[in-house]
Model the fold of this input.
Amino acid sequence: MPVAHRLWREARERNGLGDRDLVELADRWGIPEGRLRTVANFYPRFSEPDAAGEGTAFACEGFFCGLAGGGRATAGDRAFSCPGMCDRAPVRWHPKRGFAAGTAELSEPAWDPEVELATPTVFRLARTPAFFTASAGESVAGDLYSPAFPGLRGETLLEEIGRLGPRDRRNPAVTLAERWRRAAETAADQRFVIAHAGPGDPGSQANRQLMVHEAARLLRGMECCGRAIGATEGVIHVGSENPATTAAVEEAVNRATAAGFLGTSFDVTVVPGFGSYVGGEETALLNAVEGRRGEARVFPPEPEISGLFGRPVALAEAETFVLLAALGETPVVSPATRLAAVFGDGFARPGLAEIDGDTSVRAVLEAAGVADSAWGLLFGGPRGTLLLPDEWDLLLDPAEWVSGDIRPGNWSFYALTADHEPRDVARRLLDYAAAENCGKCDPCRLGTLAARDLVKSGREPRRFGDILTAMEMTSLCDFGRQIPGPVRKLARAFGEKIFARA
Ligand code: SF4
Done:
């Protein structure tokens, strides 16, 4: 069992891990104490006296909870990082009682252990519906566990996936078949399929909702990917802060195993996460699954060459595997169909928008009832793109984005309204980046701090652009390269307000 997972088990049994516990465990397990400390220190929940789940509540200090008026731990609770409940922001969490949604203050929160499982509202704006087309009950029924693209495997299956053309969600310039072929062609005694479904990337809650309501297709898509690349092991990474979601997806795995779909040529393991891992950065996820510090890796080699435990990995978000299964069904769906979380007080009707390349940003905003006072749109989360009103006729088709400065991030939509000051948004973006980066490279670690200080002090705005450029050009991973995008655009559009002295 990986180190972090062993530590987590001990933390729960001992009600938190202190110095003496780590010394004793290092001795008992024959693992250097320093190695245990580097892992235990990375995940604050390991040292919490409430690791066993008694007593204290946690306040999310994540980016969207902050924008929604929360993001402050008070005397009665502790802070923790994004649990992937941005659609309910601001949230508090209690290990025994569940989430209290929309709660900025601690006084009498309405705890709900089932809120994770709520069925989302879906706007069907795409030409071909692909998601949430089965009911929650059907989605875990045994008879739905049939292989996607039956009879195909290896290169034949990769060719079929390539012919259909689904693309990488975060980097739409690349097709899934291109990425996964590299894993298939890398010589190895084992390969893995990983569904990226844990919290960590603010605004990516659609993955959590798919794990609950589309679990059968998630497993069928993973099994299909396994056949394509020659993998026999799949991993679903789920946040330990989402126990109801974890239970739902574990139940789906058990049912699929009982139905004979899993357990012979392909197995799936549900692996808990223990806290944030660099805004959902892929290589940090690999470390988290391996039970190491959830920090980014230096690459190349890419995960398809040397990923989990040094073996090739086909890694994609849960949504991608659900779409892959749907592509093998009748009626045929478009590979361009995507889910976008639309959330926050700036929308009268928040939910999930099912979009494709013919959907415009404006169509999403109208369907969800955007507030009249909206002055900007954060598209794709904190590592995405700030869209100003004159850009809202943009089509959500990456092939149309000629300027190159539009990044879809996690494809979510959050409206910035009269309740959000541009300066406060810039500060919160940089606060988030300063808290979330893994500290491995100087441009990102120091750049976020320096940029934040400039915004807070209102001094030297000209240096601000230089710092952001250095981050974009020299950071080790996408986190440091992508954080400057929305901040730079805020500074360009609202420079005087952002650098006004407090
Ligand atoms: S850019 Fe550097 S410091 Fe920032 S998250 Fe990536 S590796 Fe860590």
